[in-house]
Write a structure and sequence with these properties.
- The chain is an alpha+beta fold.
- It has a four-stranded antiparallel β-sheet, with helices on one face.
- A hairpin with a 6-residue loop joins strand 1 and strand 2.
- Helix 1 runs antiparallel to helix 2 and helix 4 crosses helix 6.
- It is elongated.
């Protein structure tokens, strides 16, 4: 319809022998389409970003510990839209005991300086295990409650009855070097200990060679 209208106007104006008027009308008629093109470019940019997120989304690192032994419990957890009270319960019943057990082993058997910080009454509840290392940056394995918004489309979807709230909360790890954390809500107490040991092994490997010099320099700069 747009093409037919523009063609009809062009034919009438050419028949009248008025080329400048035709040029002016063409520019005027193209302005609405130019605005439409801007919206199309914005939409395309959003679509490309969503497409990139879709293919970049990886499996949760916490699932590497999964086996088929407790699949019903895992499924039940996935079908539960966790709120902050659930995350605090996870921290008290799973994360904190795991950290306390690891701290006991490190302090009693290896005589290491280890602390546990339990901040469940803060705006962003968290628990963390800190292994003090003196002249270099401490090892920190923390878990904090992070809020994630849920789209209205999921809440309105009848085939997804477990989405009831506008936001969900997850226990997300954090580390002293500022790396991106990951969701650990499906881990058991022993799996959390294994994950902490895995991160501690990475920390020890980083201390070797250039990593040790880097973290010592950071510590000196902070002290200054």
């Amino acid at each position: 319809m747009w093409g037919l209208l523009i063609s009809a106007v062009a034919i009438v104006l050419l028949g009248a022998g008025s080329l400048p008027i035709l040029q002016t009308m063409t520019l005027i008629a193209s302005l609405p389409f130019a605005v439409l093109m801007i919206f199309m470019m914005v939409s395309l940019w959003k679509a490309l970003n969503n497409d990139a997120k879709c293919f970049a989304t990886a499996v949760n690192p916490g699932s590497i510990f999964w086996s088929g032994d407790h699949w019903r419990e895992r499924l039940g957890q996935m079908m539960n839209q966790t709120q902050e009270v659930d995350i605090i319960k996870f921290m008290k019943n799973t994360a904190l005991p795991a950290m306390q057990e690891l701290k006991k082993e490190l302090t009693e058997k290896y005589n290491m300086d280890v602390e546990i910080h339990c901040l469940l009454q803060q705006d962003e509840p968290s628990v963390e295990l800190v292994v003090h290392k003196g002249t270099v940056r401490d090892f920190v394995y923390g878990i904090k409650s992070v809020k994630r918004e849920i789209t209205d489309q999921l809440i309105r979807e009848d085939s997804l009855p477990h989405f009831k709230y506008a936001a969900a909360f997850i226990p997300l790890t954090y580390f002293s070097d500022g790396r991106d954390g990951y969701d650990v809500q499906y881990m058991t107490q022993k799996e959390l200990i294994a994950d902490m040991l895995k991160q501690y092994e990475r920390y020890l490997n980083l201390l070797a060679g250039v990593g040790q010099e880097l973290m010592r320099h950071e510590q000196v700069e902070l002290a200054e």
